[in-house]
Amino acid sequence: MNASRPNGTHAHGMEKVLLAERESVLADIREHLHAEGEPGKLALLNHLEAVGDWVEADLLNDTDIALLSHELVRLRDIDAALARIKSGAYGTCVDCGEAIPAARLNVLPTAMSCVKCQQAYEKQHGLGHGVSL
To answer: What is the pLDDT of residues 15-27, one digit of tens each?
Structure first.
């Protein structure tokens, strides 16, 4: 086993981090979905009441939807990482099968690819702007 690959103890520690992050994301989703103080009422529908302008309310709804989409992607990534921990595949690049260094997983616990494969993906899809995930 590569010394930089997370061992079972490290994966267990990352599981705790991921579970805490999952709870945080779920709380953010609940907050975005429901009006403050009115959990039964969707915040997306309250914007017109708050601003009195259909255009502004529509823009606020679009912003809420974009934020929710981002949070749902984060939730999906966290759930996928938790599934990899459970299956024993956590810390292994899904593209090349090599170990993902523990340092990368400490920074990005949901990483599925090693840096080399991630950079290749970003280059292939025109996403590379000098910053790599």
So the answer is: 999 999 999 999 9
Give the CATH number of domain 8-124: 1.20.120.910
Longest CA span, the chain: 62
**One-character DSSP codes across 63-107:** HHHHHHHHHHHHHHHHHHHHHHHHHT-TTB-TTT-PBPPHHHHHH
- Residue range 76-119, pLDDT digits in tens: 999 999 999 999 999 999 999 999 999 999 999 999 999 999 99
> Which residues are CB-contacts of 53 (< 8 A; sequence separation ≥ 6)?
none
